[in-house]
Design goal:
single chain, 42% strand, Jelly Rolls, 18 strands, mainly beta, 0% helix, seven-stranded antiparallel β-sheet
């Protein structure tokens, strides 16, 4: 992260901001269904069911996006910004789970259950975080706990995908040359006819296309992601 200095103030700057496809800070009034994309694309984000801004929990900014695990999610219209191809990418966010009673799907870019052209993140009913490539598991990571904030990052660099939990690589590096051409985007549910909804909170969701931000262990962010 670098800084722009204006008088006595320092403003954080992301040198890779031009490659950010989506940036959701999750800020706003409690109960609001207006979820703003602060990336340069200014994508329209649609909240479905009871997905909403909540001030009950947050990592930064005093609010986050809440999901109750029962028929609610957010989505963004299909866009090439979410088609990673065979290139590098990074998807990262802070998450806090309320329950692992069921499979919790956090992220899905597929165009359906049978598609091999998208990527899925979920936790098992035992709290194990899994990165799923199309139709098969790619990385099986750490076992998480409820009522605790985690920084989650999935980053592909030159055909190798890694999962990081709180800045530490979790699970094995995976050879991954998949062509992720699907352009769908769901947070909080799977893009198939299953009731695997996420039950918890998400804050500071950022997708960077074409850039592998993390290839080794790192210090997790200690402030909201920059808007420039």
């Amino acid at each position: 992260m670098s800084w722009v200095i204006t008088g006595a103030e320092k403003t954080p700057v992301d040198p890779q901001f031009g490659s950010v496809s989506l940036l959701l800070h999750g800020n706003g009034a409690n109960g609001s269904t207006t979820i703003t994309d602060s990336s340069r694309f200014a994508n329209t984000v649609t909240a479905v069911g009871n997905a909403q801004i909540s001030t009950a929990q947050s990592k930064f900014g005093g609010a986050s996006i809440a999901f109750d695990g029962s028929g609610d999610w957010i989505t963004v219209s299909s866009d090439p910004a979410f088609s990673f191809g065979t290139g590098d990418f990074t998807v990262e966010f802070f998450a806090r789970w309320n329950s692992f009673a069921n499979v919790n799907v956090i992220f899905d870019t597929r165009d359906g259950a049978a598609s091999a052209n998208g990527i899925v993140f979920y936790t098992t009913s035992g709290g194990v975080f899994v990165v799923y490539r199309g139709v098969a598991p790619l990385i099986t990571g750490a076992t998480l706990q409820t009522a605790q904030w985690y920084h989650i990052a999935v980053s592909r660099s030159s055909g190798t995908t890694r999962l990081f939990v709180d800045g530490v690589q979790s699970g094995s590096s995976a050879s991954d040359s998949a062509n992720y051409t699907d352009q769908n985007f769901f947070v909080g549910k799977t893009n198939e006819a299953l009731s695997n909804y996420f039950n918890g909170y998400i804050d500071e969701l950022r997708i960077t296309k074409g850039i592998a931000r993390y290839t080794a262990n790192f210090t997790p962010p200690t402030a909201p992601f920059p808007d420039i």
